[in-house]
Backbone:
């Protein structure tokens, strides 16, 4: 018997010693989670890439981005040009006056995630939903110059990219009179933290910031992450929470209202984390047009997991610029569109 116990303890110790060292990334004891140094993270097309969370940053690229936020591209879509965008250029008045930009209608800004660009699916899906719903300016921001670098470099450069977006929106406001209270900034994955920083650059004056499955790795303890002060109303939609192995989204509350869709971990009809992660922008596009997903307020992660929330109800997503709510919510969907 003693021999068996000694062998078990030795074997267990050996196994533990060979497991990669993990880093705790949660800022809440309720959502404690560890993430290994080496992970796989998807690009905008759903292809997985190997990521070293301790990789050196490309300082030369970061210095360039910091010096010149004009590396961001701003592509305008309206009902007059729903398919072919017009380029808007920061500090170039003519690029605005010669475009279809209308300061009298709301403006929606869409920001893609890591290893993505203006052609990523989120942009066309959300743009089409917004233009079908109402007459708006949709501005797709392409920050692929930085987003296509290694994950650590892209993460480190998010504040500069967000600051550039904020400066561009301030320019729009000064040139056209477009009100910040008519602006809704929507970001996916790393883009969720970009729009948060843009709202911060504008001192929280924009009407809404929406984070779609905000990126988790390197962000749970990051002071630059999306937070409730980034806009008049900040909302986060969690579909692949980082409190699970391989979860791609952040594992904690970051907004005025945090929606954990179908529990926030995995989504119906999804067999991979990538699929669940990407469902965030598909759900959001659905709510813009149909406004059909409603969350119920919860008082704990246990209630969210067990689907026993019984608090106040709040519509998730949508295009309401005067929307307000606070708390954590569970929202359930159907398996197929419309959700």
Residues:
């Amino acid at each position: 018997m003693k021999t068996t116990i000694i062998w078990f303890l030795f074997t267990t110790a050996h196994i533990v010693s060979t497991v990669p060292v993990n880093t705790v990334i949660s800022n809440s004891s309720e959502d404690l989670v560890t993430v290994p140094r080496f992970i796989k993270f998807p690009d905008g097309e759903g292809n997985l890439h190997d990521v070293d969370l301790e990789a050196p940053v490309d300082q030369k690229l970061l210095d360039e981005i910091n010096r010149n936020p004009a590396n961001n591209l701003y592509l305008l879509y309206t009902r007059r040009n729903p398919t072919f965008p017009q380029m808007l250029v920061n500090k170039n008045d003519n690029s605005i006056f010669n475009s279809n930009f209308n300061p009298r209608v709301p403006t929606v800004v869409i920001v893609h995630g890591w290893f993505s660009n203006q052609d990523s699916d989120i942009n066309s899906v959300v743009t089409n939903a917004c233009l079908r719903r109402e007459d708006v300016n949709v501005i797709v921001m392409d920050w692929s110059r930085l987003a296509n670098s290694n994950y650590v470099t892209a993460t480190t450069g998010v504040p500069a990219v967000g600051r550039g977006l904020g400066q561009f929106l301030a320019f729009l406001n000064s040139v056209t009179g477009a009100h910040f209270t008519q602006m809704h900034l929507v970001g996916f994955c790393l883009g969720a933290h970009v729009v948060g920083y843009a709202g911060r650059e504008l001192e929280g004056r924009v009407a809404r910031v929406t984070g779609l499955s905000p990126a988790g790795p390197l962000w749970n303890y990051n002071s630059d992450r999306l937070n409730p002060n980034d806009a008049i109303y900040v909302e986060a939609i969690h579909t692949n929470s980082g409190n699970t192995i391989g979860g791609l989204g952040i594992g904690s509350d970051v907004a005025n209202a945090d929606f954990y869709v179908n529990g926030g971990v995995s989504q119906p009809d999804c067999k991979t984390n990538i699929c669940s992660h990407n469902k965030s922008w598909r759900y959001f596009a659905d709510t813009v047009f149909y406004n059909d997903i409603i969350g119920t307020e919860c008082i704990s992660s246990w209630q969210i997991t067990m689907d026993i929330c019984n608090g106040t109800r709040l519509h998730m997503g949508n295009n309401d610029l005067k929307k307000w709510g606070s708390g954590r919510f569970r929202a359930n969907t159907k398996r197929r569109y419309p959700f």
